[in-house]
Every structure is written in C-alpha cells, then in structure tokens.
Amino acid sequence: MADDPAAITYTKADAMKRLDSALKIAMNDYSNEYKLYPLLNRVVTDITLSTNCAKQGHPHVLEVHNQAFFGTKNNYRLPDCAACFFDDDSEEYFPAFWFEAKSLDYFEDWRTTRAEVEAESAFQNSIPQVRKQVDWAFCMFPGLDECCVFILVGIYWSLLRFHRSTEDKARTHTEIWQQKPHISQAKPSTTPPRKRQ
Q1: HSE-up of residue 112 (Cα within 13 Å, Cβ side)
Q2: What highest taxon heads this organism's lineage (predicted)?
C-alpha cells in the first residue's frame, strides 16, 4: 500500500510529530491566541480524517471549517475552528462541533498542575462568547437541535453541549426578567442613630 501512488498513508507517528510541532509553536508565544490555531487545526483535521459516518452510503462528509461563519453579512459570530457535516446531495452544511480557543498566559510548561488551575478562569470567562455563537448557530441552522462546543485554553479543553429547547427557555427567561420594571430601593436614612440612654 505504501507504494500505491493513489494511497495517502498517515500514521500515528506522523500525527504525533505534527501535534508536537503545533504545541511547541503555541507554547513559544503563549499569550498569542493565534499561535493556538495550528494546534487546533491539527486536532480537528485528525478527527475529521479518522471519522466515518455510521451508515454506509450516508451523504454527509465531515470537513474542517476554519473561522466558520454563523450569521449574516452584517451580524455574525466566527468560531475559531469547526467540524461541519457537508451533505453532498443538498449541498448544505451544518456544524457537528466547534472549538473556541483562548491563550493560556502562563510562561512555564503548560503540562503542569499550576497551568491547569490557571486555565479554569479562562474557561469561565469564555462561556458568554460561546453562548452567543450557539445562539447564531441555532438561528442559522433551524434543523440543529444540539450544539457541541469545545473551549480550548492552551492544551486544556472542555466540551459543552447546548440543547435548543434549553437555550430557548433560558433566553425567554432572560428577556422577561429584563423587561420587568426594576423596583427602586428606598434611600438610606440620613438621620443619625440615637444614643442609647
């Protein structure tokens, strides 16, 4: 098979070498989020290459979409990298999952417990941005019932799953709360307290 010009051989050793190179690029300029993109692209590309649809003859193909476009010309969100299913019959695509990457501002080796702790706050700070991406994905893809999003901070990642029905309820609750009139609090008394006799 190695001598077959029609075949492309991609071994585990090849994948690990490329992954290690991308990791070194990211860690050499740790505060620059864009230096994470080669690592991110490497991971998503390997996932799409090694994934087959469960059903034979299924029209969907899993592809990498860097800076995936969710929205309209004037208002949109761009996840850093997405894996999208492309339907060859309808020539339409929809996201299978996507990544939102954040830099890990930590100057030592990322493969330490301290770096992992540093990543936790970056995860939390990323959730509002991811929720906006999810809202746009549900608007753009009406048939989509679930969004799977990985937040990547340095080499640490977490998978969040968003369901359309749950997000709709949360959005409705927030909108109702924002529309309610806010009750003004009584002004604090300016009368000095009396001394006890």
Answers
A1: 10
A2: Eukaryota
